[in-house]
Amino acid sequence: MGFFDSQVVQEEAKKLFEDYQSLTTLGSEYGKFDREGKKMFIERMEQLMERYRIFMKRFELSEDFMAQMTVQQLKTQLNQFGMTPQQMFDQMEVTLKKMKSEIQP
User: Fold this and answer.
1) Which domain of life is it from (predicted)?
2) What does pTM read for this prediction?
3) Could you tell me which of 44, 52, 51, 53 has the C-alpha nearest to residue 23?
4) Collapsing DSSP states into helix, strand and coil, what is residue 105?
5) How far separated are the first and last CA of the chain, in Å rounded?
6) Is the pLDDT at 21 greater than 90, yes or no?
7) In this structure, how many other beta carbons lie within 10 angstroms of the beta carbon of residue 41?
């Protein structure tokens, strides 16, 4: 069975994508959130990024050809911006820490 044939993989990919889209839409209103709303948004983003990090690690560890191709495509896309996947995650972490510091009392 291929990596993408797994029901678990398909469901998690779908859920990650839906959650990401939802948070992205919600994030466009971030400036209007009160302090608690901003804290909740940041927490949800942190949780999503951790889930994405784990999901990507599954791809990296898989011996499935399509999973490896997906990893290579991501690396190629990020390389166009001068980034590695790790740098992408690090940058998101920096952004979320900055957002947290801006709402501290």
Assistant:
1) Bacteria
2) 0.84
3) 44
4) coil
5) 52
6) yes
7) 19
